[in-house]
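FOLDING PROBLEM:
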Amino acid sequence: MQLCSSVEYRQHYVQQDKWFVDKCLAKVPASFARVIRRKHNDIVFKTEGSDTRAAAAGNGLVREYRDHIHSVAGKFNLAANDEEIRLQAKKIADDIILQLKCPPLTNDAKELLSRAIKFANQYDIDLSNLPETGKAGVTEETLLRRLTDEYYWRRVLRRGTTRRIEAEAIRLGLVNIQAGAYVSDESVYRFRAQRKRNKTLLENLKATNDAGDEFSLQDLADTSVANPAIRRSELMTRIAGQERIARDLSHVGVFITVTCPSRFHAFKRLSKKKAVANTYHIPGTTPLDGQAYLSQVYSRLRAALHRRSINPYGFRIAEPHHDGCPHWHLLLFVESEQVKTMLELFRSYFTKEDQQELINRVSGKIKWQRRIKFIQINWKRGSAAGYIAKYISKNIDGKQTDGESIGVTHDGFEAITAAERVQAWASVWGIRQFQPIGIAPVTLWRELRRVARQEEHFDSEILERASDAADKGDWAEYVRVLGGTGLKLCDLPLGIVRDTNLLNKYGETSSSKITGVVDRIDGDYIRSRIHEWTVEFSPACEHSEPWTRVNNCTVGQTGGTLGHHDGDVFAFKENQIFISRFEQNYFSHGTAQAIRLDG
């Protein structure tokens, strides 16, 4: 049957060819597939010449994208939901176990680890984050436990999938002020789903202490810095206290903004709602590369400042531009006679690379402001805490202290909406949003607040004064008691005490168990954690063996779960292997400790 016109034929072709396009785009998120389908249809209808040529051009685009996705995603299914990721994680862990029982048989953990890593590499998975042997009790045996644990692979696959999705979204132009600021809509949806899963899990887990008190983990999380309101309040308390210290010392406050060269920016913003692709952008560059650049430059700058005995202190905030590229805001305090030298060094180091792009084409002068900006805070007109408050809020929940929205951001977004997208951006790329510079540790502050609530007598005057300051929320006094700013952790008069006898589920040393605070001068010690906690699923949920110490670790533990199978254990001890579900004649085996953990 011959159609009456080329347009009708091409419409018919697009409908008939849908199965081919769907097959090629089966492993990409729906939002990505829509972009490719639009491009495919545009080519089919706009290509001049014969209908056959138009159809071939459209199919060529789809094939090209299919091959591209295969090259960047490998065996990752970018369209996979979390349940599919869990199944894939279990499959990888089980497949590695099967590989370890295949000939040639050996009890050499080093050889088995090499075999496991080689097999894992077939899945195009980056294992560069594996801990190094020889540190914190990490051995070939503990690494084998990781690689045969499906829960370890869940974390690896979730991180790998979300980052590959976001990198592809940037390439497709889905991350900018027009399409989706800071992060793609796809990653926002996944971030919401992740938070919903986490909230459900916390609500279904019950923590019971040795005094018989019971709470859901969600209730406990709501009273910690996991609560955005508490996190925001604590940050503002620290900044305000540090500002008081600076004023008392007659130091100068400077607000500095630094950003990356153009090669890290995928899009160039033309107006409030319009952006175009940046021709200087290096394809494949991600926000993680931009963060690494900023960190590297700051590391060199910090060394230069140290050589000149300049020791600024304050806070650093990392947040995204509209296209996801990170930039930093730094609130720093420094001696007044050193501020000029410090700012000159900042400008020199952060404008050293790709300086030609900073030159104004008309005047020929270098426009440093394209890469770095300075604002010296006038104490008479306002406070540093007040100036930085909006940046703190935008990167946490977009709310004021009264719970109301701070309004509209400079990008034109309602602040609460913007905050969610910024949080998703930080989650995808693993970028630390807030970092103190040269100031007292907040972990010690939190432990001292615990200590103060016990209403015990202190033999140590420093402990007494520091805990009293922390209990009153007086960060400035807390810093004064510790000796001021710029001190190294090892030089502080007070320190955190940790239980060093704990092992994680893989048999490695765990340092997550804080027990108390010690006066390093006279040795006076006081416990800050007075209860032992057991965590288990609430009765309404599926039964699970309890976890102790609220950190998923047990003293003397040397094995971890492989899955939901009750008989699955895989443990090592003194280079001996015990695999209960495999034929025992494959391995010579000795005694092994194993404990089932659900996580």
Observations:
- The chain is about 45% helix and 15% strand.
- Residues 442-527 form one domain.
